[in-house]
């Protein structure tokens, strides 16, 4: 089994919320991008999507950068649907997914750089044009807009923007990622590429 196949198998087995078909589509998009630069994701949870990206990175000589504060999104907090009490740090009393993330991405540590920070805090410090930007952070309207405003402009011309959990029908899911996708497409600066499930892909043209 090749290393790429090993990482794809690890991604499929890793904890997380990305369906296999969408993960493989993200991997394929990362393989297909033709401009230089790193692959950067906003919101990594426990690293499942990072492994799909890492499998492409080892095949193309790229680096994956994950940006996450590792305190979880709104739906992961106490009293919410996806809360996991075993992830709460008993010392500080807050959710902490960093150790779980490191266990997940252990086989890809040579190509994955983890930045533990809020995306809007890192953005002013970041200047390297991105080959692929994967937006999968908090899905509140405010947070999704903030990630869009802070990071989409950092995508290289010819680079790929991937947006997860895009649901045109409100009955299927929250609308913040759909809003990001719609605004970016309406800007006239992007061409939509074939997507899979709730994963939308757009190429920056200018």
From TrEMBL:
Top-level lineage group: Bacteria
SUPFAM superfamilies linked to this entry: S-adenosyl-L-methionine-dependent methyltransferases (SSF53335)
One annotated GO biological process: DIM/DIP cell wall layer assembly
GO molecular function: methyltransferase activity
Gene Ontology, cellular component aspect: plasma membrane
The UniProt record lists the keyword Transferase: yes
Pfam families associated with the record: Methyltransf_24
Xref: InterPro entries: SAM-dependent_MTases_sf
Keyword tags: Methyltransferase, Transferase
PANTHER family in the cross-refs: RHAMNOSYL O-METHYLTRANSFERASE
Protein's name according to its UniProt entry: Methyltransferase domain-containing protein
Organism: Klenkia soli
